[in-house]
């Protein structure tokens, strides 16, 4: 419940690695986020510090990310931030910042992309989600409203 949600804008730094796990597909890649600032002395934009995050994606997001992302592409990643401290190679205090991704997309402020809906392997019957006819009430609603002492719905206005 009390998770730290972040949204980072950066570039894909490593090729996505895709794996089929027992719990479903999983993918990971690194994203580089470099801050930019205006250098008054040089009167030009300058790059600041670069942060690297390991992005983890699961299920359909993993499949789509692995098929869509390449090194160097600008991306936006939204997800849960997880900062870990470990001991590696005898060195204590090694930190990593991971993002458990909820959404990943190309940054359209820096380029264009073409969206293709992914086809799911199992196609089930799609329920009817057409818009209801708001101009007239169903016949049984009017009778139920009159029995309850309510006014029937007003007819649609014709202009």
From TrEMBL:
Residues 117-159 are annotated as: Disordered. The keyword Transcription does not apply. It holds the Pfam family SSB. One of its GO terms (molecular function) is single-stranded DNA binding. Keywords: DNA-binding. It comes from Streptomyces griseoloalbus. Homotetramer. PROSITE patterns: SSB. This is Single-stranded DNA-binding protein. The lineage of its organism: Bacteria, Bacillati, Actinomycetota, Actinomycetes, Kitasatosporales.
């Amino acid at each position: 419940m009390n998770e730290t949600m972040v949204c980072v804008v950066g570039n894909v730094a490593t090729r996505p690695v895709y794996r089929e796990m027992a719990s479903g597909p999983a993918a990971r890649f690194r994203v580089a986020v470099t801050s930019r600032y205006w250098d008054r002395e040089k009167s030009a934009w300058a790059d600041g510090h670069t942060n690297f995050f390991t992005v983890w994606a699961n299920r359909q997001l993993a499949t789509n990310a692995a098929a869509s992302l390449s090194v160097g592409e600008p991306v936006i990643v939204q997800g849960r931030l997880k900062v870990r401290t470990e001991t590696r190679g005898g060195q204590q205090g090694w930190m990593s910042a991971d993002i458990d991704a909820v959404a990943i997309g190309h940054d359209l402020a820096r380029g264009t992309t073409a969206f293709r809906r992914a086809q799911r392997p199992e196609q089930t019957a799609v329920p009817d989600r057409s818009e209801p006819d708001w101009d007239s009430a169903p016949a049984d609603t009017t009778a139920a409203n009159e029995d309850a002492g309510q006014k029937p719905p007003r007819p649609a206005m014709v202009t």
